[in-house]
Structures are given as structure tokens and as C-alpha cells.
Amino acid sequence: RVLIVDDVITAGTAIREVMQIIQGQGAQAAGTLIALNRQERGQGELSAIQEVERDFGMPVVSIVSLEQVLEYLAGDAELKQYLPAVEAYRAEYGI
């Protein structure tokens, strides 16, 4: 059993490629740990993470979410200037 560790999931493409390698070696993925859940849309109505969980039947756990990043930026006087850019990103790509 293998734990996949990655920085982020965008569309799940890298996870799908890694799953082919893992399965090709006769191993099984136990789950995926990502540093940042950008909370992006997948191919349909689900988030990219939800699609990976559904397609591969494994949990995807993140250390921090985009929502937590937004909360942190909003609470810091110096970093608050970056809030509009991150919110615009979420509005375009987020779930």
C-alpha cells in the first residue's frame, strides 16, 4: 500500500498518472495527502478532490484549504492586500 503525497491537486491529472504507475507495479494506493486544497472544480460538478476520491475509492486529505488561506490573509494587516487576487482566483476556478 502506497500513500501519494503531492503539493496540490488541480484537475487530478498527476494523480491519475501516478495511479497507473502504482497499479502497474501491483501496488495499491491507500490515499493521497496534499499540502493545499485549492478547492477547484473538477471536470463536472464535483471538486477535483471529490472526483479523485470517487474514481479511485481512496481518501484525499489536505493540510490546509484555500478557505483557511483566505481567513489567514483577511486577518493579517500586511497580507490583506493579496486577498482580492486570491478571491478572484477562487471565483474563476473554485467550487
Question: How is the secondary structure organized here?
Answer:
Layout: E1 2-8, H1 13-24, E2 29-37, H2 48-56, E3 60-65, H3 66-74, H4 83-93
Parallel strand pairs: 1-2, 2-3
Q: Would you kindly provide a written description of the structure presented here, covering whatever features stand out?
A:
With 95 residues, this protein is α/β, with parallel strands linked by helices. It contains four helices and three strands; from the N terminus they run βαβαβαα. Helix 1 (13-24) links the parallel strand 1 (2-8) and strand 2. It is elongated and about 50 Å long. The model has no long low-confidence stretch (mean pLDDT 92).
Main attributes?
95 residues, alpha/beta, Rossmann fold, 3-stranded parallel sheet, 4 helices, 43% helix
Give a quick account of the main beta sheet: strands, pairing sense, barrel closure: 3 strands, parallel
Uncertain segments: none
β-strand amount: 15-25%
User: What is the H/E string?
Assistant: EHEHEHH
Rg computed from alpha carbons, rounded to a whole number of angstroms: 15 Å
CATH class category = Alpha Beta
> By helix and strand content, what is the structural category?
alpha/beta
**What is the total number of structural domains?**
1
Mean pLDDT: 92
Q: What's this, in brief?
A:
The chain is an alpha/beta fold and 95 residues long. The chain is 43% helix and 23% strand.
